[in-house]
Every structure is written in C-alpha cells, then in structure tokens.
Amino acid sequence: MIRQFSLLFFIISSTCLAGGKILATPGVSQVEGAGGGGLVPWAQLAGYATENTIAASAFCTQATVKDFQLDSCGAQLNFYDRLELSFAQQNFDVNPLSLSLSQQIIGVKYRLYGDVVYSHWPQLSLGIQHKTLDTPDIAFALGAQHDSGTDIYIAASRLHLGLIAGYNFLWNATIRYTEANEMGLLGFGGSNGGGGFEAEISAAVLINKHFAIGAEYRQKPDNLGLGESDWSDIFIAWFPNKNASITLAYVNLDVIAALPNQDGWYLSVMGYY
Amino acid sequence: MNRCNGVIFTVLLVLLLAACSTKIDSKHQATLYEQLGAHQGMERLVNTVIKKIAKDEQIFPYFAKASVSHFKQGFMSHLCQTTGGPCQYTGDTMVDIHTGMNINEADFNRVVELLIEAMEEIDITYQTQNRVLAKLAPLRAQIIKI
Fold this sequence. Notes:
The structure holds two protein chains of two kinds. By secondary structure, chain A is mostly beta strands.
C-alpha cells in the first residue's frame, strides 16, 4: 500500500516537473487524433512537454448527431515540444443503415516556429494525417476513388494574454490539403473532385484558469456531390489540472451523405501524462 | 426572511462596488501598478514570489548565490516600471542578468507558474494576473538560453 502510494506520488511529482506550461494552453484532442480543438488540428502539440521532456496523452471522443454517431479514441506522443505522433481509431455508426464505418489515422505534426504564448509571431506547425478506411464498400458505392489518403496541413496559433478585458484569447487558423470525404469515412476523392485546400479556424476565451469556451469552423470538400457541408461547433472545456480535460460541445455537422440537420452533442475526455 | 435580507444586502453591496469601480475607472484608468496595490501590493507580491522560489527545488539553485535584498529591490522596481508605476528601473538589463545562467524553457515556465501561484495566494484577480503575465511574457527572449 505504502509502495503504491509512493509510486503514485512519484508519478504525480514527475508529471508536475514535466508540465511547466500554463494550464489549458496545449488544448485538447481533435477527432482525428492531433492536438487541437475538437474539429481542428492546432499548431500546439498535444500535452505539456517542453524542450527537455516527452509527454504522452490519450483521449476518447463521442459525437452523437441525428442519424450518426462517431466514436474516436486515440493517443499522442509529444517529443520535446517539437514533434507529435498521433493515432486515432474512428468508428462511425450509420443508424439508418444499421452499419458501422471505421478508419485509422496516423498523424505526425512538426513545430516549425514559436510558442503559442511567448514568441513574437504565432506558433506555426506542419502536419500530416494518413487515413486508412477499413470499410470502403459504402465509399466506393458512393463514387469515392480511394480507400486511403493523406491530409497535409499547416496551422498557426496564438494565445493573447489578457487581451479581452483581462481574459486570455486563443485563436488558431489551419489550411489543409485533403481528398477526404467526411474526414475519410466516405473514402477519398470522387466525381466532383480529387483534392483541394480547406480552411479551418478556432477561437477560444479562457474564462478562468480552468475553463475555456470557444467555437470552431471547418471547411470540407464535396468530392462525392452529396452536398457535404462545412462543420462547426461551440465548446466548453474544463481543465481541472494538467492531467485531465473534459470537453463538451454542440456540433453542427449539417449534411452527411445527403441526410440534413446533423447536429448534436460532442463529449471528449483526455488524459495527459 | 433574514436570509432574504442577506441576499438583498449582498446584491446591493455588489452593485455598489461595481458602481464604485466603474466610477474610479471612468475618472482615470487605473494602471496595472495600482491594480496590484501600488507599492505595498508590489512588495507583498515580490515577497510571496521569493518565498515560493526559496521552497522550489527546480528554481532555487539559480538563486543560491544571489542576495535576496538585491533581488527584491530590483524585481520590485522592474515590476513597478513594467506595470506603469512611478518608478525608474536602474538595474542591469534582463540580458546582462541572465546571460550565462542557461535558463531553459521548463525553468522559465516554472517561474511563471510560481508567479501565478503567488498572485493567487494574495488574491489578485484572474484578469489582473493575465495582464501582468502579458507585460512579462515578451521578456522571455531576454531571459532564456543566453
């Protein structure tokens, strides 16, 4: 018992040493596994690692809208606040057809410049997400060209200390090149197009040390000609300490596979080590 | 009934305080220095930070050979000037002080953390804390890895 306690204490104390950054500044996990907001990968790398430390984190997210449910779980490793490796497993229940789609996403993100809080210019990172769809039948039936694809993105983010009446304001802007239909769950490419650049933005205010509220917007292509729409959300994230966060969001996924009004709730938990 | 009175009293008090603070604000924009409690508040903050550094295994070694009174004097007048107070910092530059100390990002972040803890301990509001950090954050390039 005592040994377990001292081990726990050791873990907690070493974690504290690793985590020098200001609480909440690294953000949470996005649905494809990268460190970020809920929908958008950010320039920050996941977790509280600094130049001398490695951080590990893991998350599970569930988004439930009218006709679909997305479950995404994954993990990140942050090497010296320079390189982030991530993995996510997505399962997507299509309720009207009583079937599930699933894909795996391997991500790499490299910090090119800066620090979201301290540098003169915004933090800048370059990332890729390689996606492999396990269940390509529906995608091919709808006209998708491939069952795997790679997104490339560049993200810039900045936290402005005390900007709005003394509250910290964070923004992130991401440009992504992607061929993915509905993130890849409906395959890659289609009769309407093969690939293109999409813009994604996030903004958040830290209303106190532990809570952030914000909104996101993510442009998406419409390669399949099914009226695929942009995504948006408003969120509140709770950071009780540097080992956990919980994010609740209201997401508007609009039209998915020609089914309209796909809005609903998003819940994500993340552990940082 | 008593409880009700208490609630009404509290609401009135809050309204009064809010009115007062807006009045002060509209008369003249309180500097950050004043929000921190001027000279007395600054001294309290610096003392609390020093107390925290002295107890911190990661940071204390950097101060092992430093004179506490010299550091306190310098920190106070620097903070006073940075937050818009009526002081002129005449000490060595940030670069001169920190050159050769090999302070890394983690150490810098830890000091920021100690500063936040100190401000919390003496009940400085979250907004004022952020404003102080906003003034000090740009100094990082003059402090670390030099």
